[in-house]
Each structure stands twice: as structure tokens, then as C-alpha cells.
Amino acid sequence: GLVNTKEMFAKAVKGGYAIPAFNFNTMEQMQAIVQAAVETKSPVIMQVSKGARNYANGTILRYMAQGAVEYAKELGCANPQIVLHLDHGDSFELCKDCIDNGFSSVMIDGSALPYEDNIALTKKVVEYAHAHDVTVEAELGVLAGVEDEVASEVSHYTKPEEVIDFATRTGCDSLAISIGTSHGAYKFKPEQCTRNAQGKLVPPPLAFDVLHAIEQKLPGFPIVLHGSSSVPQDEVDTINAHGGKLPDAVGIPEEQLREASRSAVCKINIDSDSRLAMTAAIRKYFDEHPEHFDPRQYLKPARENMKKMYMHKIVDVLGSNDKL
Ligand code: G3H
Ligand code: 13P
Ligand code: NA
Ligand code: ZN
Questions:
Q1: CATH superfamily of 6-318
Q2: Ranges of each domain in the chain
Q3: What would the pLDDT profile of 252-264 be if each residue is shown by its tens digit?
Q4: Residue 32 in contact with residue 307, Cβ under 8 Å?
Q5: Is 87 known to be catalytic?
Q6: Which ligand 2 atom minimizes the distance to the CA of 271?
């Protein structure tokens, strides 16, 4: 069945790699994630946001994730390591509902709350979760952009001096930190970036000094990076070449995610890159086959393109391949 993150994270921290956490809302995403994980022999976290539950229905997504384990076995993987994780849980009740309904891991995101309120809420979720063998991700520090319907113009890096107190008092199993990533396909404003020779935006580097300070405070403690899509320029170009309009979309350079993966960062969240891969393939297909209208015709290349992206992340960026 589904597993929690405990052993997986311990191994990843020790081994200097990161587990991919891919969001899913559709069957094609689920299939592509499982195919990619099986072919690369990677553990994988399949995560469901509140928005995903609203879109697809929580029960359906849960059975899809449970089905994913069976599907992985059918594809020849004897020992699939698949986590079903709640992404950005915003209340005890939502976390409890997921814990009561088969999720093996939850995130309680109290990062927008005052420090003591974040601790109290996280601790309450941890107590309930641990009684049910479910692991808990917490968050300290605020990502720039829209997170949990709370808009923040600037990011507030995680304060290294707070992490020991926070981890000890909450008992959380992993900690999402803010070191300059943000959600979506527009992670930096053009004025925050420089331009390379080709005129492409080059974002400012992540705050690795903050990450290293956190690692020194909590040696070996599992760290999570949200907002870690790299917004591949070829996908953006394909989208824009086929009627899309994504000007100046920019993400986190993969080299920096590779570096983070070697540290105590053991979970890297990727959602936007899957959206881009799907949209690019579908836009191209529609442009090239205006006479087609069977969803299977255009969802097939979309699924293949997502699978290719997932495999690339696993093998070339996070290094979680050959770990089963
Ligand atoms: O946290 C952001 C994730 O990409 C989930 O996005 O809330 O639109 O499903 P969503
Ligand atoms: P991206 O928008 O960079 O894919 O981040 C996803 C995420 O953090 C989900 O929680
Ligand atoms: Na790591
Ligand atoms: Zn996130």
C-alpha cells in the first residue's frame, strides 16, 4: 500500500538526493507519474492540494493514488514506494479528514500565522497524525506570491534561529522552508532578473546561505522546497508558438535544485512544470490536428510529455532514481 515519508526521507537525506513531490489532478498526470517512477525505480510523492480536491473530488484522488500502487506493480515494480500527501493543508479539520481517509502524509501550512499559532496548529495536527502513522510536513517562512490565498508581495526567508524551537515543539517530520522559491510560472519579476546573451531572464540565486544555516541548526532533519518548478523555456516557447501567451515566465534553474538535492532537502515540489508540459503538448497537437476531437488523441502526447519531464527531474535533477 501507500507509505509515509519517514524512512524515505531518512534515506534521501543520507543518500544526498531528493524525492519528487508531484501534484496531480487528473488521471493522465497520475499515470505519467507512476510510469516515470517505475521506469526510473524512484520513490515518489503524489500530492493533492485543496484545489485538486475541489476540482477532482478527494475520494476519487485517494482511490487513484491507491490504484497507483497497484498500477506500479502491474508495470513490473515489485516494491513501489508511493506516498499520498496533502499539499498545503490549511486547517486541522482538513488534515484530519485526509488522515481519516487514507492519506499517508499531510502538510499543515501555518506559515501565514503568527509564530506561536503556527506551532500550536502544527502540534495539534502532528499529535493526531502520528497516532495514525501519518507523517507531517510543516512550514516556517513565507514564500513570495500567492500561497494559500494569502498574497505576499515579498518572501520572508525562514529564520534559522527559529527552526530548532519549531521542530522540537511541534514534532513535525519535515520542514518546508523559504529560501527564494515561489509558486507558479512567474517566480521572479523581470526587474529582479538579469538577461543572458539570448535575452532570456536569469533569476537571482536561491539563498543557499539560509539553507546551510538551517542545516547546521538541525543536522539531518528533512527539509522541503516548495515552488521548485524550473519553467522549462522549450515548453514555454512551444506554448507561445501555438497561440499561448506566457511572457517572461521564469522558474528555478535546475542546477540549483540539483545542488539543493545533495543537501538535507529531501522533498522537492513540482506542479507548474507538469501544467506547462501538458499545455504545450496539447496546444501543439491542436494546432497540428485541427480535425481531431477525441480527447485520447491529444491527452496521449500530453501524458507522454509529462512522463518525459518527470523522468528528467528524477534522473537529471533530484537523483532519486535506482532507489527502490
Ligand atoms: O501550492 C500550489 C500547488 O501548485 C497547488 O496548486 O492549489 O492550484 O492546486 P493548486
Ligand atoms: P511550482 O508552482 O513551482 O510547481 O510549486 C509547486 C508546489 O510548491 C506545490 O506545493
Ligand atoms: Na537531499
Ligand atoms: Zn507549495
A1: Aldolase class I (3.20.20.70)
A2: 6-318
A3: 999 999 999 999 9
A4: yes
A5: yes
A6: 4
